Amino acid sequence: MTLAWGIFEADGATFDLSHLDQAITSIEIGGEEHAILVEFSDHCFTEEAVADDPRPKFTPSTRTDGRFCEKRYQASLDIWEHIERAMKGPVWLGEDDRCLIVKVGEGENPMHYVIPFTLQRWKGDERAKLKMRVRSAFIRDSGDRVATFGQVRFATLVQLTLKGKSPTRNYDRIRKRPW
């Protein structure tokens, strides 16, 4: 099944979510191409509803009554740039099976863009052996941190996942953090 987000309207404005449609990307490791199916969650529909809320609700949402969040939508317009950058370098290890792409902001009060995802072996689509599920994507200010447990190069994460293994998480109190 191919998930397509498409175009919709909210408050008289038109929003195109096609950049969040399912897509195949790949990474080369040791001369071998590894195709990855990338799928995005309904992370643009996360705001709490207010009385008589006219904003669209994503009907098959994983959230109780998540409404369209324009701030998350605007930030998601560059999501592929962040994913492609991360595929060439390290990603952070998050809680449980989550990994994180973190774009660290700069300046006096930096805003950080955090993209939690999972990577798993995939048999549901012959075009790819791996599936990357982008679970969310959100902006955090520098005072609101996300737990990280070390880093791993994305290429290493792919190799481990193909072997059915997971990277070791670092729980040391003085471990390296993204900020």
Q: Main traits of this protein?
A:
179 residues; alpha+beta; 14% helix
What can you tell me about this protein's structure?
With 179 residues, the protein is an alpha+beta fold. Helix content is 14%, strand content 34%. It is built from three helices and twelve strands. It has helices spanning 70-76, 79-87, 154-162, and strands at residues 7-10, 13-16, 23-29, 32-40, 45-47, 67-68, 90-93, 99-103, 111-121, 130-134, 138-141, 151-153. Strand 3 and strand 4 (32-40) form a beta hairpin. It starts with 6 loop residues before the first strand and ends in a 17-residue tail after the last helix.
Give the overall pLDDT as a whole number.
Answer: 85
Query: From N to C, what is the helix and strand string?
Result: EEEEEEHHEEEEEEH
Strand percentage, roughly?
25-35%
Number of helices: 3
Molecular shape: globular
Class by alpha and beta content:
alpha+beta
N- to C-terminal separation? 38 Å
Low-confidence stretches: none
**Largest β sheet strand count, sense and barrel closure:** 8 strands, mixed
Give a count of the beta strands, DSSP E runs of length 2 or more. 12
In short:
The chain is 14% helix and 34% strand. With 179 residues, it is α+β, with helices and mostly antiparallel strands. Strands 3, 4, 7, 8, 9, 10, 11 and 12 form an 8-stranded mixed beta sheet that branches. Strands 1-2 form a two-stranded antiparallel ribbon.
